[in-house]
Each structure stands twice: as C-alpha cells, then as structure tokens.
C-alpha cells in the first residue's frame, strides 16, 4: 500500500485536530441534554423501553441490526436487571446508549489512529457533523451507531492491521459490523477490500487475521443483502429505499433543516477548496451567512419548522455517507494522499460553523421534546380512562404545530403515555391516531398491555373513549 510518510509526519499539526475536538465538545453538550431529557424515547424508544422493563432482556426486533440494538439498550437492560423500576430513569439509561455511543465511538476512532495519521479523523468528523444531526431525532439511533461502528472497523483495518493486538481488534470490529445495519452492505465490501489489500504488507497471525476479516465482511455483506431482498415485511423494504434514496430533505412545508444545513456546508466546503487560490474566504462568509439564516428560520418557529418525520426519513444517511467516504479514503490511501490536503483553514471554518449550528439545532429539538413530554405528562396525570387521539390533539397541540402533531399521529404515543404515568400509576391511556398503520396495545384487551414492574394498573378504569 502506498504511503505518504513525508506528508503524514506533519498530519498531527493540521487544524483538523483542534476542529475535531471542538466538534466533539459541541456534540457532547446537546447529547447530554438529550440523554437527561430521555429524548430517545421518541418513536420506537418508549416501546423498546417497556419491553426491557417488563422482561429485563434486550428487545432485538431487527436481525440485521443486532449490534446497534445491543449498544442502544445495554445500559437500560443493566438498570432493569439491577432493580431500577422507575421508567423515566430507565429512559435516561436508554438515551445514554442511543445518544451516547455515537459520540463515544467517534472519540474512540481518534485513539485508533497512530501518530502521524490523525488527519484521517476527518471521516468520523464528517459523520458527526454532517450526517448524524440530520437524522438523530428518531429514538433508536440504529443507523447512526452502525455508521460509527463502520468507521471504527475501517480505521482499525487501515491503521492497526500490522500488530497482533490491532489485528484482534480488527476481527472484533468487523464481526460487530456484520450485524450493524442492512444498509452497510456496500461499506462491508469496502472493508473487505481494505483487508484484502493488507494481505501484501502483513505476515503470520496478522495476515491470517486480515484474511479472516475479508471473509467475515464478505459473508456479512451477503447476509445484509439477504435482509434487503427478503425483509421481515414489504413495508420494511419500502422504508429502506426511502431512507437510502431520498425523502430526507423534506418539502418546502416540512424541510429537514439539519440536512439542508449539511448540504449547504458541503457545497461551501467544495467551493472553498476549489477556489483556495482565489478568495476562498468569500465562499466561507457566504456559507456561514446561509447557515445563520437557516438557524434563524428554525429558531423563529421551532414548533413548526422541526419535522420529526423528515429526521426519521434520513435514517439511512449516516451509513450511506460513511460508505462513500470510506471508499474515497481507501482510494486516497492507495494514491499516497491524506485528508489534510483538502482540509485547509477555509474548509475547516465552514465545518466548525456547521458544528455550532447543528448543536444549536439539536438543543432546540430537545426543548421542543421537553415541551411535548410535559404536555403529555399533564394530560395523563389529570385525565382518567382511554383518551382518544382527537382529545389528545386538542389538549397537547391546540395550535396545530407540526412537531407535536407528527408525534401525536404516530403509534408511539401509546407506550410513551404509559412511561409518563404519574409515579408509575396508570390512570389514563392515549390512543394512537386512527390512521396509524400499526398499534402495539389495545386497552380493551388486557393481554396486549405491558405488565411492567414499574407500572401499577390498579387505578386504570376502562371507560368510553373520551
């Protein structure tokens, strides 16, 4: 494999290094707030949590995503087995897994890179700043965690394959990626190719390890392809195509502003690099101005501008971009180039500006979540019996804002209303919207209701739907 020793030796002095750590710090702050707010109980999160609390075991619904599900649920499962009964506390632990692991795995990528090669942290940095914020308001973070695992495996294979300990880490990370996400099929092929290329510069155990990594990732790609072609249901196939092929930009009435911000920043970075010899700072100023305008639009009316469904539609974006950049980085390595060549001060100024804007947008999303949860909590604390979707809309979203409307229209309002029962005493149950394509519970059939140690159903009276 070609090397660029002369250039790589000064890679650690690139501005990429401080920009990466500033971006990590900016990601930690909103992630910490999201964790404390149990924000990952949105959509599937509350349903997963009730299953964990009821059985004390992992809720592994997607065979192709076992590793992200184990990481996302691990802290909550541990809490349930240690005797934690308060559902909100378990929700914080669930959010710690869903929102904490992406940041932690991104940081871990830094320590995988040896001295003189730190500019390759550009890949996880791009994922953290450009891809993850466009889709991390979906509750379970499966695609997000998968993208971080793929970066970890790719960097291990590229930079730690020549030592026995590193080779073992390559095997472990590659095995984890084979059950990361069905959309990882192409990225697994990239990792397999990287391992195959390292057969030329490794010997003995390390060479055998690279051969094993190549075979494991090829088999994993085949397994992921199987789940794409033959999913558990036809609905999952259409969801996969929507997540991978588009829909995440939204529409003029319901845009994904985080995805738009990432796109504008990407175009700005390209312009700043292309015109690096001719006033690149013009591109920087224009891009930053556009990012500020986007944030101002969001901040002016966050309840209407934040569209959870658009963030959900972008769930395949982190893995898709990881695949693209992993392939590009493998090519750069073969050509003896490093990302430092493309990461001048103007480009990094745009990246850092985007990190600031994305962190602020995430804070606004968490604030909206807190308001929504507060309204739901008040509703289930003051009403008794089964509450219809129409009644819940009147109480929780009297002004008809998009953020609350979209969440109330989802089936996930049912498990969330139970998680929010005052002191775990269920006295009210919020029905999903009539048009919901699936509902987990039927209050008229007690056998369908979750029997959780943290829930007391003795005060629940089944009355006519309000």
Distance between the termini: 69 Å
How much strand?
A: under 5%
Shape: globular
State Rg.
Answer: 23 Å
The number of distinct structural domains comes to 2
The major β-sheet equals:
2 strands, parallel
- Helix/strand order, N-terminal first: HHHHHHHHHHHHHHHHHEHHHE
Strand order of the largest sheet: 1-2
Number of strands: 2
Number of helices: 20
Structural class, from helix and strand content? mainly alpha
List the helices and strands and how they pair.
Blueprint: H1 5-8, H2 16-36, H3 44-55, H4 66-81, H5 87-112, H6 122-131, H7 142-159, H8 164-177, H9 185-197, H10 204-229, H11 234-245, H12 257-274, H13 280-300, H14 302-305, H15 308-313, H16 317-334, H17 345-382, E1 385-387, H18 389-396, H19 402-409, H20 413-419, E2 428-430
Parallel strand pairs: 1-2
Helix pairs in contact: 2-5, 2-6, 2-17, 3-4, 3-5, 4-5, 4-7, 5-7, 6-7, 6-16, 7-8, 7-9, 7-16, 8-10, 9-10, 9-16, 12-13, 12-17, 13-17, 18-19
Question: What keyword list fits this structure?
Answer:
mainly alpha, two-stranded parallel sheet, 466 residues, 20 helices, single chain, globular, 2 domains
Brief write-up:
With 466 residues, the chain is mainly α.
Q: How does this structure look, described?
A:
By secondary structure, this protein is an all-alpha fold. Helix 7 packs antiparallel against helix 8 and helix 9 runs parallel beside helix 16. The termini are far apart. The chain has two domains: 5-245 and 308-336, no CATH class; 379-448, no CATH class. It contains 20 helices and two strands. The protein has helices at residues 5-8, 16-36, 44-55, 66-81, 87-112, 122-131, 142-159, 164-177, 185-197, 204-229, 234-245, 257-274, 280-300, 302-305, 308-313, 317-334, 345-382, 389-396, 402-409, 413-419, and strands spanning 385-387, 428-430. It has a two-stranded parallel ribbon. Mean pLDDT is 89; it is low at 1-9.
């Amino acid at each position: 494999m070609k090397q660029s020793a002369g250039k790589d030796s000064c890679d650690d002095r690139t501005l990429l290094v401080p920009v990466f750590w500033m971006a990590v710090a900016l990601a930690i702050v909103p992630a910490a707030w999201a964790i404390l707010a149990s924000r990952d109980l949105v959509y599937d999160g509350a349903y997963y949590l009730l299953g964990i609390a009821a059985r004390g075991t992992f809720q592994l619904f997607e065979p192709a995503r076992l590793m992200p599900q184990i990481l996302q649920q691990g802290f909550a499962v541990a809490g349930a087995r240690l005797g934690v009964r308060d559902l909100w506390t378990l929700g914080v632990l669930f959010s710690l897994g869903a929102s904490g692991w992406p940041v932690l795995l991104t940081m871990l990528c830094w320590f995988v890179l040896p001295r003189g090669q730190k500019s390759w942290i550009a890949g996880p940095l791009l994922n953290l700043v450009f891809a993850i914020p466009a889709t991390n308001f979906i509750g379970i973070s499966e695609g997000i965690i998968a993208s971080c695992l793929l970066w970890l495996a790719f960097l291990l294979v590229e930079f730690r394959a020549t030592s026995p300990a590193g080779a073992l880490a390559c095997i472990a990370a590659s095995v984890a990626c084979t059950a990361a996400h069905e959309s990882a099929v192409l990225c697994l092929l990239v990792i397999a190719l990287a391992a195959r290329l390292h057969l030329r510069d490794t010997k003995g155990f390390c060479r055998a390890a690279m051969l094993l990594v190549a075979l494991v990732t090829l088999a994993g790609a085949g397994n992921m392809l199987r789940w794409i072609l033959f999913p558990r249901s036809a609905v999952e196939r259409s969801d996969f195509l929507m997540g991978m092929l588009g829909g995440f930009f939204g529409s003029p009435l319901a845009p994904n502003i985080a995805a738009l911000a990432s796109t504008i920043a990407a175009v700005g970075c390209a312009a700043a690099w292309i015109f690096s010899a001719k006033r690149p700072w013009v591109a920087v100023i224009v891009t930053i101005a556009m990012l500020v305008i986007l944030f101002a639009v969001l901040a002016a009316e966050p309840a209407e501008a934040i569209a959870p469904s658009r963030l959900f539609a972008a769930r395949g974006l982190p893995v898709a971009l990881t695949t693209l950049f992993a392939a590009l980085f493998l090519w750069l390595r073969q050509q003896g180039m490093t990302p430092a060549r493309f990461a001048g001060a103007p480009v990094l100024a745009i990246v850092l500006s985007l990190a600031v804007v994305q962190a602020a947008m995430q804070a606004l999303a968490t604030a909206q979540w807190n308001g929504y949860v507060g309204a739901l909590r008040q509703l289930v604390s003051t009403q008794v019996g089964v509450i219809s979707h129409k009644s819940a809309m009147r109480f929780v979203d009297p002004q008809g804002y998009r953020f609350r409307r979209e969440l109330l229209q989802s089936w996930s309002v049912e498990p969330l209303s139970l998680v929010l029962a005052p002191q775990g005493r269920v006295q009210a149950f919020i029905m999903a919207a009539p048009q919901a394509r699936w509902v987990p519970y039927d209050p008229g059939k007690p056998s369908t209701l979750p029997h959780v140690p943290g829930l007391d159903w003795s005060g629940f009276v089944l009355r006519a739907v309000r």
